[in-house]
Amino acid sequence: MHNSTPGRRTVLLGSAVSPPERSVLGVGYREYLTRVTTEALLVSGLGLADVEIGAISYNERNVPEGALAPVVCDALGLVPRPFISISQACAGGGVCADIISAYIESGRYRIGIVLGLNKPDNFDFRDAMGPIGNWTDVDYMLGFTHENYGYLRSEAYKQQYGYDDRVAARWARQCHWYARRNPLALYSQGPLPTEEELLSSTPAGYRARTATGRNLASCLVLASEDVAEELGREPLFFTVGYAHRPCYIGNHYYYTGHPLYREADMSRQPALALAARDAFERARITVDDIDLAQVHDLSSYDGMMALEAMGVVAPGQGGRFVLEGQTAIDGACPTNTDGGAIAFGHSSAGGDFASKVHENFLQLTGRAGERQVPSARTAVAQAYGTHHSLDVVSVLRRQDT
Amino acid sequence: MSQFPEGVPRLESYSTIRAWRERLGRYRLRGSKCRVCGALWFPSRMGMVCPQCLQLDQEDYECARTGVVVVHELEVMGYPAMGYGELAPRHICMIRLDDGVHILSEVTDAREERVGPGTRVRMVFRKHKREETGNWMYGYKFVIEGQ
Predict the structure, then answer these.
(1) A62, A122, A125, A127, best to mutate vs chain B, most B CBs in 10 Å
(2) Which has the higher per-residue pLDDT, B113 or A274?
């Protein structure tokens, strides 16, 4: 784990995500990223000339170019400045953010951007996404995809704690409630799905309780705190932690490589717990400081497991927390106020982390409209990649008064 | 066969050489055992580090071929893996083998109501699907014990 970082701290100055479009066929990925970068810089009060370093998270199968960093660096006119590309599944944005943050805190750079790209119209979804993160020799080659991993994980959670799909339906309905108040969400309009629709045992019902894919480009503008001071902006301090878990899902049982994993099974997320512990310690917060959370709910149960691993609720209590309405805007921990992967949309490698940080940015700057959590000061965002073989947790907090 | 009448190019995820090289894991449940601490691993960690003791000393190990279902999913999502459309819905299970190793597999030749947590199963060797190269993919599945 990281040592605590003395001295300079990282702040989030601005962010942007692309609007909800199921298809952006007429837009190339270079333009797509350029749009969102210029928008985020405008929000931050900076320009491209101020950017000293960049990083991009993407799924390497999104684009045929094998090394995306030079391509994007060129598209943004940033040549010859340093740029990093990372393909590390849905949580890769968190790794990019951690690297840029470390550069800033080391004093080497003052201002950096973190980009994300998910544009499935560039590739064959079925074959490109099915094996992601698997140990393909013995699972994808035998017909098991990472969607199977997710489904089994949900079943394990339900079985372990005695829940049924009513809790998933309740979670999904709450996400849709938030999404109807978020113009950036994929499901920002239309009536809320009915209880009957959400509880259906058909494939349509299953999909209504799980994530919906979307295109997304994202940009976070990170800087050292003195930049915020120069701009006369209230600093929003930003911290990231991350940890890994074995890729093969059979190794999620009683893995002996770390003490915290030895009693775990698929229904518990020890890497997420380690990532949260690291992020909270370095941000100098406790779980009691959290005012709202964005979690990675590829299924509703994933969201509950995330709240448990971060310590918001005890193991096994996530379902009850949802049934009591504690994830609602007036609950103990408003959760997925952007609509989550279920109703905001699942933007995979390039967007899942950044879109959650963007929502926290809107919440902490009082720009979340009808879904605004009153007096929010500390917000966490969590994403996982390749079925929790990578877990990322970030903290965004306003300055102590 | 693929669920599509025409060939489906899978440029990144399938390689005849890789499938051949790693066949024993799929044919015989061959994993590995750490010679230093005795930890059992599937998939095989031959040539890799043991996470328990951090030593580089693995030997081949054939996992137990019987076990028990610990988590079960009847795959009804509507988008099965390529090449498995005609076999849907499949019983996809996490299985704890009798030596403690956990593996992901399919329980085949079974009615829906007979598979669930606690079901005893044994490994069988089955034909899976034809790959785009024309090769058949073979590997393990499980059936209910005593069947």
Answers:
(1) A127
(2) A274
**What are the CB-based long-range contacts (under 8 Å, 24+) for A302-305?**
A302/A150, A302/A153, A302/A154, A302/A384, A303/A171, A303/A335, A303/A336, A303/A340, A304/A157, A304/A167, A304/A171, A305/A153, A305/A157, A305/A267, A305/A268, A305/A269, A305/A272
Give residue B83's Cα distance to chain centre: 15
Considering chain B, what percentage of its residues have pLDDT values greater than 70?
90
> Quick check: A147 pLDDT over 80?
yes
Cα–Cα separations (whole angstroms), residue A46 to A13, A57, A358: 9, 22, 17
- Beta bridge mates, B137: B129
Would you call A42 helix, strand, or coil by DSSP?
Answer: helix
Q: Is B75 within 8 Å of A148 when comparing Cβ atoms?
A: yes
Report for A65-69, A116-120, A323-327, B130-134: range of highest mean pLDDT: A323-327
Write down the pTM of the prediction.
0.94
**CA B103 to centroid of chain Cα atoms:** 7
SS3 sequence, B46-97?
CCCCCCCCCCCCEEEEECCCEEEEEEEEECCCCCCCCCCHHHCCCEEEEEEE
Mean predicted lDDT score pLDDT of chain A = 92
Task: Give all strands (DSSP E) within A250-344, no chain letters.
Answer: 292-294
For residue B25, list chain A residues with Cβ-Cβ distance below 8 A. 137-138
Q: How far apart are CA A65 and CA B25, in angstroms?
A: 33
- Residue A26: count of CB within 10 angstroms of its CB: 7
Phi-psi region of A272 (alpha: psi -120 to 50; beta: other; left: phi over 0): alpha
Closest residue of chain B to A157, computed from CA coordinates: B71
pLDDT of residue B90: 92
B137/A142 touch (CB, cutoff 8 Å), yes or no? yes
Whether chain B has a CB inside 8 Å of the CB on A144: the answer is yes
N residues, chain B: 147
A159:B140 CB<8 A: no
pLDDT for A174:
97
Q: How far lies A28's CA from each of A113, A142, A279, in Å?
A: 20, 35, 35
Coil/strand/helix, residue A219: strand
d(CA B34, CA B52): 9
